[in-house]
Specification:
seven-stranded antiparallel β-sheet; alpha+beta; 3 helices
Length: 146
């Protein structure tokens, strides 16, 4: 198995604190950011930042649906890490300052991929698909912050 990684980012005209607070709000804001690939979204514990446990189903492709149960940690004030109990997937959201009035959000996802020819296709195509999904989340975040 090889590690599969996907990453994308976006810059916002909002303070890092505003952006981070929006991302860390799994109860109110996060559900509004999710594109059609997400279903069955449910906060099962907490709701804001560290200690939150959230479930969703992610339809990555027409045939590939992942049942996800993420636990959120905050290893530093600018980072949210979502770790899936049902797979090896880890999603890290990092907020950093851009100039005096902006913020950048970077989202990095990684997991242990399949082996063989299936693994080759997963490493080739899954990151592009997941980046499209995360780009849609980041676009909705821009609308949320406007």
């Amino acid at each position: 198995m090889g590690k599969v990684q996907a990453g994308t980012e976006r810059v916002y005209q909002a303070t890092p604190k505003q952006v981070y607070e929006a991302l860390a709000d799994y109860t109110t804001v996060r559900p509004r950011l999710l594109p059609a690939q997400y279903s069955e979204y449910e906060v099962r514990a907490g709701g804001t930042g560290a200690g939150t446990q959230v479930h969703w189903r992610l339809q990555a492709t027409e045939k590939r649906v992942r049942d996800c149960l993420f636990t959120v940690t905050e290893p530093s004030p600018e980072k949210l890490v979502e770790t899936d109990a049902n797979s090896t997937m880890v999603i890290t959201w990092t907020v950093s300052a851009v100039g005096e009035t902006g913020a950048r959000v970077s989202v990095e996802a990684s997991w242990q991929g399949a082996t063989g020819i299936g693994g080759f296709f997963e490493r080739t195509f899954a990151p592009k698909g997941l980046n499209r999904i995360h780009d849609a989340v980041l676009a909705k975040l821009a609308d949320e912050l406007a």
